[in-house]
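User: Please predict the structure of the protein below. I'd like the answer in structure-token form so I can feed it into my own downstream comparison script.

Assistant: Understood. Taking the following sequence of 337 residues as input:
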Amino acid sequence: MITDFSYVRALAASPDWLFAATTHGLVIYDRRRRAWQPPVTVLDGYPQQPVRGAIAEPGGNAVYLALDLGYARYDLITRQWDRVAGAPPPPPGAALSVESALNEAPAAQAFRALMLTDARLRPHHFTAAARTPDQPDLYLGTDGMGVLRVDPMTGQSEPLTYGLLAPGAGAVAAGPGGVWVATDARPVAAGGDRSGFTWVSEDLSATTTSEGGGAALGFTFLQGRRLVARGSTLWLATERGLYAVDNGSYRSREYDVGRGLPSEDVTSVAPAPDGVWVGTSRGLAVVGGDGKATAIGSRGVVVLSLLAIGDSLWVGTTTGLALLAPGAPDLVAAPAP
């Protein structure tokens, strides 16, 4: 399962692997191939109690996670968990804290504030550190930015991001070689999540995220409800209107009442012959190839779902199933069988 792995509780490194224990699962980075392995979550036996620390098994492919009572050992080869009552084998070298790691890398310490500020200017904190004697790379975990790989000599950092922007996946659409995912985020009053899109490769080895290209505050929606990919555009139905998003730059155009929709409470979206159909809580609309939104039929119909078949559109509403026939100006009741 892919979810939000941005809050790192503990790190451990071996010559081949970097293990990051996060609030929602264990993510494993292949240091040789520079690619992520499929994540290990509660569905795979990841401990539900908080992880207090992590130790990589010397010369092996396993990690020990320190819990309130004992340790949980995960073997990457067998993909099996074991509970360990006693202490695990000591790691090569001394355990590494964030402060000791930065004290050994003055250049990284100098760039600390810059490294911990994300693209939306939100501040974060380091939560864990790891390195191995055979390689110079320093790895630092954060409370919202995932893992950073740092060159101790120059202080240059590289984000090793992986996962979704928020735990909830509100809408999914297929693309060449993977899928796009739109978040289902909590409001600020409930803890707050990041909002936006994540591209997930089909082999789960890489993800890329965007909170909005070109917009100072990023995407403002919380609920990604339905997602349609057409050409280079992602069409997303949200509680704050319809978003048309370029899947390369993630620059967007937003449609609301002022731009032709019956309501900004968009419940569904489906491909149209030349654009997309848009269902809202106050009626139906279509966005044509010219980018113009036009309301269709009478307002006030609460649209719940849409299904386009050829030039016809089936519309699920709170009062039943309706049909928009090709060229028809309004919905009609679905014909009896």
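That's the full token string. Helices lie at 98-103, 106-110, 112-115.
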